[in-house]
Amino acid sequence: MKAEAVRHILDSIAVMFPDAHCELNHSNPFELTIAVLLSAQCTDATVNKVTADLFQKYKTPEDYISVPPEELEQDIRRIGLFRSKAKHIQSLCKILIEQYNSKVPSDYNELVQLPGVGRKTANVVISNAFGVPAIAVDTHVERVSKRLGLAGWNDSVLEVEKKLMKQVPKEEWTVTHHRLIFFGRYHCKAQNPACADCPLLDVCREGKKRMKKSQLSKDRDK
């Protein structure tokens, strides 16, 4: 995509969502890591409901490994895949205690070695907790990027990430990540995107197709 088209997209979503931010509640890098780990295949709203109590009960890695796995499972039961996530959390906490003095490492390559921490989680943590520019590709970022032509329809998550990093100025990576999430979560939704009211309809492949289909349907009904 040409640079001016990318700039148009970035400026448009900046106007729409100037205050976009990480919506997972946390007060330190450790809590953010736990919250992002829990958010896999789960909404941020549900995670925040669970962590409201969880972060009161467990404040350190030592706290998480001091209870039986079954107790932690019950504490996060409302979260999807709660059993495997509880196992990952306790394994992660043991490593933090043994290798990192109970602190979350700020290095990306060290983060992705932790149980339950993939590229997305690591990118969210380094960008939000440590101020390192990064673009984390979740379901919203992937969907919006493909609809707007920033990535190809068949691109993998890693390919989407690489293309965004190439097209978006590095100093805008983190804020663009948040704005793309807000755009996908609140405007360009998976099932009912607000195409008719979208300032990016001119560059959106999905939007043009939907609007054309809608117009054809209206014409048939006349």
UniProtKB/TrEMBL annotation:
Free-text remark on how the cofactor is bound: Binds 1 [4Fe-4S] cluster.
Enzyme Commission (EC) number: 4.2.99.18
SMART domains xrefs: ENDO3c
GO terms classed as biological process: base-excision repair, AP site formation
Residues bound to [4Fe-4S] cluster: 188, 195, 198, 204
Cofactor(s) listed: [4Fe-4S] cluster
Record domain HhH-GPD: where: 38-186
Keywords per UniProt: 4Fe-4S, DNA damage, DNA repair, DNA-binding, Endonuclease, Glycosidase, Hydrolase, Iron, Iron-sulfur, Lyase, Metal-binding, Nuclease
Catalytic activity: 2'-deoxyribonucleotide-(2'-deoxyribose 5'-phosphate)-2'-deoxyribonucleotide-DNA = a 3'-end 2'-deoxyribonucleotide-(2,3-dehydro-2,3-deoxyribose 5'-phosphate)-DNA + a 5'-end 5'-phospho-2'-deoxyribonucleoside-DNA + H(+)
Broad enzyme group: lyase
InterPro entries recorded: DNA_glycosylase (IPR011257), Endonuclease-III-like_CS2 (IPR004036), Endonuclease3_FeS-loop_motif (IPR003651), Endouclease-III_FeS-bd_BS (IPR004035), HhH-GPD_domain (IPR003265), HhH_base_excis_C (IPR023170), HhH_motif (IPR000445), Nth (IPR005759)
Family: Belongs to the Nth/MutY family.
Function of the molecule: DNA repair enzyme that has both DNA N-glycosylase activity and AP-lyase activity. The DNA N-glycosylase activity releases various damaged pyrimidines from DNA by cleaving the N-glycosidic bond, leaving an AP (apurinic/apyrimidinic) site. The AP-lyase activity cleaves the phosphodiester bond 3' to the AP site by a beta-elimination, leaving a 3'-terminal unsaturated sugar and a product with a terminal 5'-phosphate.
NCBIfam families referenced in this protein's UniProt entry, alphabetically: nth (TIGR01083)
Record-given protein name: Endonuclease III
Lineage: Bacteria, Bacillati, Bacillota, Bacilli, Bacillales
Gene: nth
